[in-house]
Design brief:
mainly beta, eight-stranded antiparallel β-sheet, 9% helix, Factor Xa Inhibitor, 1 helix, 135 residues
Amino acid sequence: MSAQSGAAFLLKITDGSTPTNFQTVAGLRTTHMAVAGQAVVVTSKDSNGWRELLSGGGARSVSISAAGIFMGSAAELRIRGNAMSGALDTYRLSFEDGSTMQGQFLVQKLDYAGDFNNERSYTLQLESSGAVVAA
């Protein structure tokens, strides 16, 4: 199995149309995803001193962080609008092997930075709301 390209790890956002179309968030140089779960401990005196966890229990979440150069794309402007309004929106992560993950996310944080003679950059933090479906 060969290594997959990081350049093919794409963040996309719906354009709000029906049927749903996705636009790639332009200018991203780094993208990171973390899947987290909260364990439900069901240890009892019958556990013989070993911790036991409930399979499928607890809350799961997906966090996405990304950083890039602001290009002024429609997708970036939609993200900024979502950050300002606190609106949930549908996002999709696409991977080089063709698999995807899709779900509702909230813009938790959006930071912009820029130097006098350099491009304007941004960092983005998304948190899932509800199920994130892998395909």
